[in-house]
Amino acid sequence: MSAESKKAHNFIQSLIEDAIAKGEHTGTVVTRFPPEPNGYLHVGHAKSICLNFGIAETFGGECNLRFDDTNPEKESQEYIDAIKQDVEWLGYKWADEVLYASDYFDQLYLFAEELIQKGKAYVCALNAEQMAEYRGSLKEPGKNSPYRDRPVEESLQLFRDMRDGKFQNGELVLRAKIDMASPNINMRDPILYRIRYADHHQTGSKWCIYPMYDFTHPISDALEGITHSLCTLEFEDHRPLYDWVLDNITIPCHPRQIEFARLNLNYTITSKRKLKRLVDENVVDGWNDPRMPTISGMRRRGYTPESIRSFCDMIGVNKAGGTVDVGMLEYAIREDLNDRAPRAMCVMRPLKVTLTNYPADQVETLTLPVHPQKPEMGEREVTWSQTLYIDREDFEMEPPRKWKRLAPDQAVRLRGGYVMTCKEVVRDDSGEIVELKCEYDPNTLGVNPEGYKPNGVIHWVSASDSVESDINLYDRLFNHENPDSDKEGDFLDHLNPDSLVVLKGARVEKSLAEPRTDLPYQFEREGYFFCDQELTAKAGKPVFNRTVTLRDSWGKGGK
């Protein structure tokens, strides 16, 4: 068992260990991750991925990737490809080939016929409204469909006619015959098959009837020899139906379904339907917009697989619901990047500085560490020249108390360079500050000045060889802690107007002319930033997305 597996110990692992100790489970542990290919995976799916693949790894077993593709009207190859990429990017490898529920359509059909022949299923002609009426409520039992007692032969023939395309969408369904008075509404003769005239991305036009999830899922698990079917808590009430299906067909394997609490993050929407609405209504720039909680969006923003796995480990796996503070996710990426991210300087809002006592035709090369605590990561070079840029926000004409940056007649150290003192402020015709004229102290490279104390340390770049860049300052997409609350109106009412601020004309040090694309940089004093390859290619200059600030800027909640 790996160190990571030991660290991630949870109640499901304990259940399996107990079953093995008692001899109730022998053989290989086999799990599965069964996404619907009707959208992109989000951070909630990451928890399930880490759990299913992690449990298999812990017990030396295997995990299948199986697409639950029973609704062709909402599915596409684009989603399949994206899901496969996300799982691999997170660092997991599924057993053998990718599997599809549609691989089992022939067998599922035969199992449905078996249920009909056993008197356990029937073809029903109630429409959707009638079926809802007959279903009853949480307080009232349902009542039997008038078609419930069709002769077996009649239901069997009608089911075959459904398969052969002799009825229209919604005209007939196949239902299980269980108990319309059951306190569990899922057991009140649920639908097993419905008619859908839609081409399927895997099976084409072969089928015009498609099985429902609650019928497909247990059989697919059993056919694959899954030993532990790990589901989120909303499927707890479906477990009796899961077991009923397997108990009433001829199949040797009966997996054990175990439920765990799904991931709910504050300031975050994880409903695929609502995420799709954000995309369709152009609120965001596609499924991989860096503000989206999708795995592809987080990847584009600069989140690392290690940080997401660490986050999933931190929040644990349990039966209790609840909401996790998104600050924990941000903490996980800060912890990872603080240790690994190379350092660089970026001046986001450039303000020109002229060193009046530095020769105009002179430059010198200064050496800075790539990482101050990691000498093995090497060094980088920056150029010191007469004309520099500092950030406009690092200068104040009338500084507040305890100001630790530049002001008139005050001195600061430039990171890795000399100490300079502001002597003159130059304004344009509108009164805007456009240049600072400063004097540098040539005796302060790497040593403290004599007779005075600098008022802090600020970052900078050389005007002569820094590189122009665009910066996307991403923040949380919603400014409400619970944007999905039914009491708070439409979730789009809670969009954060500052979720994206674009800064044009920023300047980065020359080492970022061709930035690395495998890991974000720490822009000193600013945060962590990741090169957006797609936007960089379009812009013809480096474009960086802010992954996360250096510290939580949302106050108490994230600390």
From TrEMBL:
Single GO term (MF): ATP binding
Q: Which keywords are on file for this protein?
A: Aminoacyl-tRNA synthetase, ATP-binding, Cytoplasm, Ligase, Nucleotide-binding, Protein biosynthesis
- What GO terms fall under cellular component here? cytosol
Domain Glutamyl/glutaminyl-tRNA synthetase class Ib anti-codon binding, by residue range, is 341-441
Q: Which residues form the tRNA synthetases class I (E and Q) anti-codon binding domain?
A: 457-532
Any GO BP annotation:
glutaminyl-tRNA aminoacylation
According to the UniProt record, what class of enzyme is this? ligase
* Localisation per UniProt entry: Cytoplasm
Where is the motif ('KMSKS' region)? Answer: 269-273
Can the keyword Protein biosynthesis be found in this entry's annotation?
Answer: yes
What quaternary arrangement does the UniProt entry report? Monomer.
Q: Which HAMAP family match?
A: Gln_tRNA_synth
What name does the UniProt record give this protein? Glutamine--tRNA ligase
Quote the gene name from the UniProt entry.
glnS
